[in-house]
Design brief:
The chain is α+β, with helices and mostly antiparallel strands. The chain has one domain. Strands 1-2-3-5-4 form a five-stranded mixed β-sheet. Helix 1 packs antiparallel against helix 2. The longest helix has 16 residues. It starts with a helix and ends with a strand.
């Protein structure tokens, strides 16, 4: 089931980017096409009661990389993915990186 969620997240990210330049944990040797989104799994969120886990939600790190810092994509991503939180922005190699994390439940 978690693979289905990841594939639904992939599809949601491709739809918001309007491109297939969405990469899940890409290997270092892949040539990225910009703008793009890179995402990976991170520690999920679990809920416990009576020493039993009764719910687990996978969490993902999502990075949007673009040459244009004002292309409006940050807001589009925030509006398209439920459970997403904006983390930070930084610039490296003349590329703008916007970092998010998302509890993806769809």
């Amino acid at each position: 089931m978690s693979d289905d969620r990841r594939l639904r997240l992939q599809e949601s990210l491709e739809n918001v980017l309007e491109s297939e330049h969405v990469y899940f944990q890409p290997p270092e040797n892949i040539k990225l096409m910009y703008p793009c989104i890179i995402y990976s799994r991170r520690l999920g969120d679990s809920m416990h009661a009576d020493d039993w886990m009764y719910q687990y939600t996978q969490t993902y790190d999502i990075m949007y990389i673009s040459k244009d810092p004002d292309d409006g994509m940050v807001q589009k991503i925030m509006n398209a993915i439920p459970g997403i939180r904006y983390d930070r922005h930084y610039t490296a190699d003349n590329l703008h990186h916007d970092m998010f994390f998302a509890y993806f439940r769809r």
